[in-house]
Amino acid sequence: MAHFLIEYRDLGDAAGREEKRPDHIAYRKGLGSAIALAGPLLDDAAQPVGSVVILAADGRDEAEALAARDPYVAGGVMELVSVRPYRIAAMKPPGGAA
Question: Could you tell me whether strands 48-57 and 35-42 are parallel, antiparallel, or unpaired per DSSP bridges?
């Protein structure tokens, strides 16, 4: 299994984002351990402008399909920008725990 860095762009529909948020969260949780990392990209005012996910998949086609099924993408709230192969070389858990 390989890892892929997936980037999304927020399309500026704050109401749609709030409406789809429960489905989006449930979808991502449903991917389980396939998600190594996920979170919003923020602007200088700490407002969401997109999202990044590092996802384990059998190949790029599977990663792209999983990314496209996210309710934010399917619902027109976010646009899929890119899906690129990614190698995790080092990882430090949040909060500095080892």
Answer: antiparallel
